[in-house]
C-alpha cells in the first residue's frame, strides 16, 4: 500500500503528541534575537514558518508537487519541482487553488479538522497520465487539466464525496459517498453507485473511526490492475456501541453519536467484496468464520487474484490469504504468530513487487523488526504457500518502515534506527541481501518519500542543531533544496537537552534527556518537571528539535526531564512487550528508577519539588504516578484514559489482552480505584469533543476524586478534540500549565 506523506505545515509539534521536530545549523549558543513566549509558539505557523503541504509524486516520477501557503495560510499555490533539474514552477495559482484546496484551518467543525490533519487526508490526487489532478475540496471533487489550466467540478451531490482514486488506465474515478462506493468516467459522464446500502451502520469502501485510528487504515478499496474491478471492505457496525459527543454551545445542544467499540465490545463485522466497475455487480468473499477478526490490509496480487491479511482479535496471529477474485476460493499462504507479543501494525506493511512474484514482509520474529523476502508463483499464486527466500536485514535495531523500492535495480529503501534508537535514518539493501547502505548520516531525524520507480526521493531532515529542511534527491546523486525552516535555534535561543542513560532494575538501558535552567540559582535547589508519555505509541527522547515550551519553563527556573521506560517504541520486542497485560506498573517503576539515578547525578535538583505532566497516555501515566507514588508535588493530566475499559478495543486489547482473560490486569490499571491515595496538586484537562480519549474518562475521574475527598483543579475546553488545537486554546492551556507549576513548585 502506498504511504501518503504529509509534510507538516507549521513546524511546532510537541513530543507528547507526535514527537518533536527541530530548528539551521547552529554552532555555539548565541543570545536570542527574538523573545520566546507561549504566544509566539502558537502564532500562525509557529516559530519555524509555514512548510510544505500535501507533497505528492507524479506517477511518471518526474515531478514532486506540493502546496505552499503564505504565513497566515490564507493564500496557497501548487508548485512542482522537476526531479531531474531541481527547477521549481507554479502549477496552480493562488486564485484557482483557493476554491480547490482551501486552508484546513478554516474548517469550523473541530472533529472534521482533526480527521483531515491527523489522518493526512489527501487534498489532491494525480491521474495516471500525469496530466490531470483531482482535488477534494472539502467533499466536492474537481478535475483539473494541467494543459488548459482549467478546473471542472466532478461531483456536485449534497453529501460530501471522498477518497477519490483513478483507475490504473485513467478512464474512471471511484470515490466514497455516504458509506457507499461510486464510479464515474473521467470524462465526467454519469456516475454509478456500485453499492447501495442505507443508514450509518453499513460501510462499503469507507473507513470507520477505530480502523483509521488503531490500524492506520487510510483507504478501504482498490482498483484491479486491469481497471475492471474494485475490491473493497464491507463493515457492518450494527452491533458497535455509540458514544454521544455533545455540542453545548447552541441554545439547544446537539448530539453526534460516534460508533466506538470499547474493550470487550462487539467490533465491526467485516468481509471483502469485489465490484464489477461496469456492471455494478458485487461478489462477496468469505475468508474466515471468525466474526471478531480484523481485515486491516488487502489489495491485488495481479488481475484476478487478491491478497488479504486477517488478524485475530488478540492481535497475536495474522494470516496472509491469496483469493481467486471470481470463484472466491482462498488459501492461507503465510501465517505470522507472535506469542506473548502483538502484531506491530505501525510497521508491518506487506509490499508486493510489481514485476515479480515476490513481496516484502516485516516481522518481529527474531526479536527485532526486520525485513524478509518471500516468493510465490505469480502465474498460479494459489498453488503453494509463499516461500521465504531470505532475511534482508539483521541486527539489534528496528526497521521502522519500507519507504520505496527500485525494482529495476533490485533495491529496497527503508527507515530504521540502527546504532541509536533516538534517531531515524534512511537505508537501502539489495533484494539478494547484499549491499546494505546508509543514505543519511547527520545526527537527527530523516524522513524519505520515494517516487514510485525508486529513482528519486524527498529528504526531510531535522536534528538538535538543524532546523527542518526538505531536499529532492536522486538516489546515489545530487540533492536540490526545496524548503528550509527559519533558524529558530538561533533566533529564540533554543538549547538541546543533555542526553542521558539510566538502567532499569533488570539492567535494561533507558534513554533520557534533561534541560537545566540557563541561569540556575547559586547554591539553590532546582525544581524538576517530568514530561511523560510512557506508552507504546510514542518516544519522548529523540535527537530532534529543542522543545520551545521546555525552554520557556527552563527560563522560569525549572529543570525539564523525560525518560523512555520499557513499553515505549523504538526498541526490541522484549523491551516493548514488557508492559503486556498491565498498563502502569512497569512504566512507573522505570520512571522512578531513572528519577533516583538522575537525582544522584545532579544533586542540585530538588527531590522535594518534583512535578509530572503528560498528554493522552502521558496524562494517564500522570494520574497513575500521582496515585501510586508520593514523589510528586504537582501534576497536569491532559486528555487521560483513567480506566482502560473506557478506551477502544483494538488498541487496548492489543497490549492488555481480552477483558475476559485478564480482569485483574484491567483492574490494576484503573487509576480510579486508587484516587484516595492521590498525592500532589492535580490539574485535570480535557476537550469535550474528544472522540479518541472520551471526555467520559475525566468525568468519571472527577466523580471518584470528589467521593474520595480529594481537591483538584479542572479545565474543560468546549468542543475541542484530543489535540485541543487552535491558537486561543493552546495559549490558554500552556499558560495554565506554566502557572500551575509556578504556583505549586515555588
As laid out across the biggest beta sheet, the strand order is 36-37-39-38-40-41-42-43
Supply the number of helical segments. Answer: 13
Largest sheet: 8 strands, mixed
Principal-axis shape equals globular
Share of helix, binned? 10-25%
Rg calc:
26 Å
Counting DSSP E segments of at least 2 residues, the number of strands comes to 43
The residue ranges in which pLDDT falls below 50 over 5 or more consecutive positions are: 1-28
Strand content: 25-35%
N-to-C terminal Cα separation, in Å? 53 Å
Give the class from helix and strand content and strand pairing.
alpha+beta
What is the typical, i.e. mean, pLDDT? 93
Kindly describe this structure.
With 746 residues, the chain is of the alpha+beta class. The chain is 16% helix and 34% strand. It is built from 13 helices and 43 strands. The strands form ten sheets. The protein has an eight-stranded mixed β-sheet with strand order 36-37-39-38-40-41-42-43, sandwiched between helices. Strands 13, 14, 15, 18 and 19 form a five-stranded antiparallel β-sheet that branches. A four-stranded antiparallel β-sheet has the order 1-2-3-4. 48% of the residues are buried. The N terminus is likely disordered.
Secondary-structure blueprint:
Elements: H1 38-41, E1 52-57, E2 63-69, E3 76-82, E4 88-92, H2 94-100, H3 110-118, E5 124-126, E6 132-137, E7 140-145, E8 150-153, E9 161-166, E10 172-177, E11 180-185, E12 192-193, E13 202-204, H4 209-214, E14 221-223, E15 229-236, E16 242-247, E17 254-259, E18 269-276, E19 282-285, E20 294-302, E21 305-311, E22 317-324, E23 330-337, E24 351-352, E25 358-363, E26 370-375, E27 387-391, E28 399-406, E29 411-416, E30 425-430, E31 437-438, E32 445-450, E33 456-463, E34 466-474, E35 479-484, H5 488-492, E36 498-503, E37 509-515, E38 526-531, H6 548-555, E39 559-563, H7 573-576, H8 585-601, E40 605-615, H9 617-628, E41 634-638, H10 649-656, H11 663-668, E42 681-687, H12 696-707, E43 713-717, H13 727-745
Parallel strand pairs: 38-39, 38-40, 40-41, 41-42, 42-43
Antiparallel strand pairs: 1-2, 2-3, 3-4, 5-6, 6-7, 7-8, 9-10, 10-11, 11-12, 13-15, 14-15, 15-18, 16-17, 18-19, 20-21, 21-22, 22-23, 24-25, 25-26, 26-27, 28-29, 29-30, 30-31, 32-33, 33-34, 34-35, 36-37, 37-39
Amino acid at each position: 500500500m502506498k504511504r501518503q506523506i504529509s509534510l507538516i505545515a507549521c513546524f511546532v509539534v510537541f513530543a507528547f503528541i507526535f514527537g518533536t521536530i527541530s530548528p539551521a545549523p547552529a554552532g555555539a549558543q548565541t543570545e536570542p534575537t527574538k523573545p520566546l513566549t507561549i504566544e509566539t509558539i502558537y502564532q500562525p505557523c509557529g516559530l519555524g514558518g509555514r512548510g510544505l503541504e500535501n507533497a505528492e509524486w507524479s506517477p511518471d516520477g518526474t515531478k514532486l508537487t506540493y502546496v505552499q501557503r503564505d504565513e497566515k495560510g490564507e493564500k496557497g499555490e501548487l508548485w512542482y519541482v522537476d526531479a531531474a533539474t531541481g527547477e521549481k514552477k507554479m502549477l496552480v495559482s493562488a486564485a484557482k487553488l483557493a476554491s480547490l484546496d482551501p486552508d484546513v484551518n478554516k474548517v469550523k467543525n473541530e472533529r472534521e479538522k482533526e480527521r483531515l490533519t491527523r489522518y493526512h487526508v489527501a487534498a489532491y490526487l494525480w491521474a495516471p497520465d500525469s496530466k490531470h489532478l483531482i482535488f477534494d475540496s472539502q467533499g466536492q471533487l474537481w478535475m483539473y487539466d494541467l494543459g488548459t489550466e482549467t478546473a471542472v467540478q466532478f461531483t456536485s451531490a449534497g453529501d460530501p464525496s471522498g477518497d477519490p482514486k483513478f483507475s490504473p488506465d485513467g478512464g474512471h474515478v471511484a470515490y466514497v459517498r455516504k458509506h457507499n462506493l461510486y464510479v464515474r468516467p473521467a470524462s465526467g459522464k454519469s456516475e454509478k453507485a456500485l453499492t447501495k446500502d442505507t443508514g450509518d451502520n453499513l460501510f462499503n469502501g469507507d473507513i470507520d473511526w477505530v480502523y483509521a485510528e488503531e490500524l492506520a487504515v487510510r483507504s478501504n478499496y482498490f482498483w484491479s490492475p486491469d481497471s475492471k474491478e474494485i475490491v473493497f471492505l464491507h463493515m457492518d457496525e450494527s452491533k458497535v456501541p455509540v458514544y454521544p459527543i455533545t455540542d453545548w454551545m447552541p441554545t439547544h445542544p446537539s448530539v453526534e453519536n460516534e460508533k466506538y467499540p470499547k474493550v470487550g465490545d462487539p467490533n465491526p463485522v467485516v468481509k471483502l467484496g469485489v465490484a464489477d466497475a461496469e456492471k455494478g455487480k458485487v461478489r462477496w468473499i468469505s475468508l474466515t468464520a471468525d466474526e471478531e477478526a480484523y481485515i486491516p490490509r488487502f489489495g491485488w496480487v495481479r488481475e484476478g487474484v487478491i491478497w488479504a491479511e486477517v488478524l485475530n482479535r488478540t492481535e497475536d496471529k495474522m494470516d496472509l490469504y491469496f483469493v481467486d477474485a471470481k470463484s472466491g476460493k482462498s488459501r492461507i499462504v503465510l501465517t505470522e504468530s507472535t506469542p506473548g507479543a502483538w502484531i506491530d501494525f505501525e510497521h508491518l506493511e506487506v509490499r508486493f513487487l510489481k514485476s515479480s512474484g515476490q513481496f516484502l514482509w516485516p516481522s518481529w520474529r527474531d526479536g527485532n523488526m526486520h525485513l524478509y523476502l518471500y516468493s510465490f508463483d505469480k502465474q498460479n499464486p494459489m498453488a503453494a504457500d509463499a516461500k521465504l527466500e531470505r532475511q534482508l536485514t539483521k541486527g539489534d535495531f528496528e526497521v521502522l518502515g519500507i519507504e520505496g523500492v527500485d525494482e529495476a535495480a533490485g533495491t529496497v529503501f527503508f527507515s530504521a534506527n540502527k546504532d541509536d534508537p533516538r534517531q531515524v535514518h534512511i537505508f537501502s539493501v539489495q533484494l539478494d541481501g547484499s549491499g546494505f547502505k546508509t543514505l543519511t548520516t547527520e545526527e537527527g531525524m530523516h524522513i524519505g518519500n520515494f517516487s514510485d520507480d525508486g529513482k528519486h526521493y524527498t529528504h526531510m531532515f531535522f536534528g538538535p542543531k538543524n532546523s527542518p529542511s526538505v531536499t529532492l534527491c536522486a538516489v546515489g546523486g545530487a540533492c536540490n533544496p526545496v524548503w528550509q525552516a527559519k533558524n529558530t535555534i538561533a533566533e529564540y535561543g533554543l538549547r538541546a537537552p543533555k542526553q542521558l542513560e539510566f538502567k532499569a532494575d533488570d539492567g535494561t538501558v533507558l534513554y533520557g534527556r534533561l534541560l537545566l535552567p540557563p541561569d540556575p540559582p547559586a547554591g539553590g535547589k532546582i525544581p524538576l518537571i517530568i514530561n511523560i508519555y510512557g506508552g507504546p505509541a510514542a518516544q519522548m527522547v529523540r535527537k530532534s528539535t529543542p522543545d520551545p515550551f521546555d525552554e520557556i519553563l527552563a527560563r522560569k527556573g525549572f529543570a525539564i526531564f523525560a525518560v523512555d521506560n520499557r513499553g515505549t517504541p523504538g526498541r526490541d520486542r522484549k523491551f516493548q512487550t514488557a508492559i503486556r497485560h498491565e498498563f502502569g506498573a512497569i512504566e512507573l517503576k522505570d520512571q522512578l528508577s531513572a528519577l533516583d539515578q538522575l537525582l544522584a547525578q545532579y544533586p542540585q535538583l530538588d527531590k522535594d519539588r518534583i512535578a509530572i505532566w503528560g498528554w493522552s497516555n502521558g496524562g494517564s501515566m500522570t494520574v497513575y504516578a500521582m496515585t501510586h507514588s508520593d514523589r510528586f508535588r504537582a501534576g497536569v493530566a491532559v486528555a487521560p484514559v483513567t480506566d482502560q475499559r473506557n478506551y477502544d478495543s483494538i488498541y487496548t486489547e492489543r497490549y492488555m489482552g481480552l477483558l475476559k482473560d485478564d480482569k485483574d490486569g484491567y483492574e490494576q490499571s484503573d487509576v480510579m480505584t486508587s484516587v484516595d491515595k492521590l498525592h500532589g496538586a492535580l490539574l485535570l484537562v480535557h476537550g469535550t469533543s474528544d472522540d479518541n480519549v472520551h471526555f467520559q474518562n475525566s468525568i468519571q475521574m472527577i466523580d471518584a476524586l470528589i467521593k474520595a475527598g480529594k481537591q483538584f483543579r479542572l479545565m474543560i475546553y468546549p468542543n475541542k478534540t484530543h489535540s485541543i488545537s487552535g491558537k486561543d486554546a493552546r495559549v490558554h492551556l500552556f499558560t495554565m500549565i506554566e502557572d500551575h507549576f509556578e504556583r505549586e513548585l515555588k
